[in-house]
């Protein structure tokens, strides 16, 4: 019998510990009949000559009821199926979402082939068809099938193609999301185009792409809680990296003056709409530059990615909102913008007790030994919610930025910026701290915090300090989350921009 598509089953209804569903049992029986007949349920390949997209492009303006005389061999997934007495129809979909109709007639293929189609083909199967390109009486571009075979038998049915997938299903079963939802497919394509654009921009500026270790004997390069593992081969504790920074700087010491890396970072912290424990990260370093020069480069990278992925600097988010990434982006001072928003002068010399009192008055809970942490938390309360357009927030407290150079003219701050886009932090940039004596002092301060129980504090990295003592040139550096870049370009949450996000 032919399976009817009227009652699709959600994949999360299947439990391997329960009795096999009726639909699955029917499909398994069809698979067995295919094999018993000498056919293959999963052939090693099929001889396609054209893609569905190419056929649609070539024959896009045909009138109704036209025969082209052009034969094609196509493959795709069956997403619609309608069988009648002497004529059967299927809509087959390519991986990019393009569809074409396959028409199977008794006159063209004969009774045996038609009956086998009705008996064996289900929604979700991958199908190979050969036939002439025509248009139906309704004008639908079609393939009049002369030969067909199953390219891969689907044992489980597709979800309802006319209903929204739940967010849980989209995230846990991304393969179904990609089959069903154009937004999922377009996000993957946009990400690939954006990353390719980043690499092209770096190439234009003579940067080299490097790969640095993900398993490290000591975590560093950021303030974050690491994942810890154990190497049996070396019988030692290892850390999944929280940042590639300290190894990229070793390369800079070695004379690689313009370098970048796009790869994975891992931070054993909370997950929300803008954070994931595993995420893709870009870091780049340019010798003889500073945080101003690296900000210029970052703007160029992001604007280029937007244009190459969507054809414009004004991008349209998933909810229809337009967001402008063009032009020159505003640069504001953290201390000046906080003072203006809070209505009270706040400087690097403002006592921590005054900052704590202000936090209490506005209901901001802060428990941290560093004065700079109060400044940053208050800034997030007063200023961050009002940032909509892309904005570089410049000049951070020195005690919260242990890898950053002191500001050349403002005591108590460092030459660091955070880039806010869509109201969240997208990237950060530094004039890098290259003085090994000051860097050691900063590491010692971090080690003291770690000894007092701060799980995010860095340890003294003697190997990195030894490299730095050989001399690292003045350098501008930046880091940007690739997943967050896609959030800025698409308006989606982080779990939508990561193809297979970590879920419980």
From TrEMBL:
Higher taxonomy: Bacteria, Bacillati, Actinomycetota, Actinomycetes, Micrococcales
Gene designation: lysS
Keyword Membrane in record: no
Cofactor note text: Binds 3 Mg(2+) ions per subunit.
Cofactor: Mg(2+)
Compartment(s) of residence: Cytoplasm
Ligand binding (Mg(2+) 2): 425
Name of the molecule in the record: Lysine--tRNA ligase
PANTHER family per UniProt: LYSINE--TRNA LIGASE, CHLOROPLASTIC_MITOCHONDRIAL, LYSYL-TRNA SYNTHETASE
């Amino acid at each position: 019998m032919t399976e009817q598509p009227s009652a699709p089953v959600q994949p999360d209804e299947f439990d391997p510990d329960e009795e096999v569903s009726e639909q699955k049992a029917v499909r398994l029986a069809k698979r067995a009949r295919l094999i018993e007949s000498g056919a293959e349920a999963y052939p090693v390949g099929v001889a396609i000559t054209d893609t569905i997209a190419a056929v649609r492009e070539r024959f896009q303006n045909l009138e109704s009821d036209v025969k082209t005389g052009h034969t094609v061999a196509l493959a795709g997934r069956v997403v619609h199926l309608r069988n009648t007495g002497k004529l059967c129809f299927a809509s087959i979909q390519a991986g990019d979402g393009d569809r074409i109709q396959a028409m199977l007639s008794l006159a063209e293929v004969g009774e045996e082939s038609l009956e086998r189609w009705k008996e064996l083909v289900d929604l979700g199967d991958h199908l190979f068809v050969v036939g002439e390109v025509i248009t139906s009486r309704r004008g639908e571009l079609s393939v009049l099938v002369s030969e067909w075979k199953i390219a891969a038998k689907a044992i489980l049915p597709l979800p309802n193609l006319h209903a929204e997938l739940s967010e849980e299903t989209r995230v846990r079963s991304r393969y179904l999301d990609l089959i069903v939802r154009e937004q999922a497919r377009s996000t993957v394509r946009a990400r690939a185009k954006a990353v390719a654009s980043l690499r092209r921009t770096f190439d234009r500026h003579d940067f080299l792409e490097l790969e640095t270790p993900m398993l490290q004997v000591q975590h560093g390069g950021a303030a974050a809680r690491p994942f810890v593992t154990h190497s049996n081969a070396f019988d030692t504790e290892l850390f999944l990296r929280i940042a590639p920074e300290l190894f990229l700087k070793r390369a800079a010491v070695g004379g690689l003056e313009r370098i970048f890396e796009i790869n994975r970072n891992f931070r054993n912290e909370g997950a929300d709409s803008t954070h994931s424990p595993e995420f893709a990260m870009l870091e780049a370093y340019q010798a003889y530059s500073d945080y101003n020069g690296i900000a210029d480069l970052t703007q160029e990278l992001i604007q280029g990615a937007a244009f190459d992925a969507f054809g414009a600097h004004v991008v349209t988010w998933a909810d229809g909102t337009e967001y402008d990434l063009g032009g020159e982006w505003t640069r504001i001072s953290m201390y000046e913008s906080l003072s203006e928003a809070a209505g009270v002068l706040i400087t690097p010399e403002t006592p921590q007790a005054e900052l704590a009192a202000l936090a209490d008055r506005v209901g901001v809970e802060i428990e941290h030994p560093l004065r700079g942490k109060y400044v940053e938390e208050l800034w997030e309360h007063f200023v961050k919610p009002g940032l909509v357009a892309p904005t570089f927030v410049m000049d951070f407290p020195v005690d919260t930025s242990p890898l950053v150079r002191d500001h050349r003219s403002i005591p108590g701050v460092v030459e660091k910026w955070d880039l806010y886009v869509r109201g969240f932090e997208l990237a950060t940039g530094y004039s890098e701290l290259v003085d090994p004596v000051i860097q050691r002092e900063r590491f010692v301060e971090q080690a003291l915090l770690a000894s007092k129980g701060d799980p995010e504090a860095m340890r003294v990295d003697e190997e990195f300090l030894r490299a730095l003592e050989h001399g690292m040139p003045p350098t501008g550096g930046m880091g940007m989350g690739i997943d967050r870049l896609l959030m800025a370009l698409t308006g989606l949450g982080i779990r939508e921009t990561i193809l297979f996000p970590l879920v419980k």
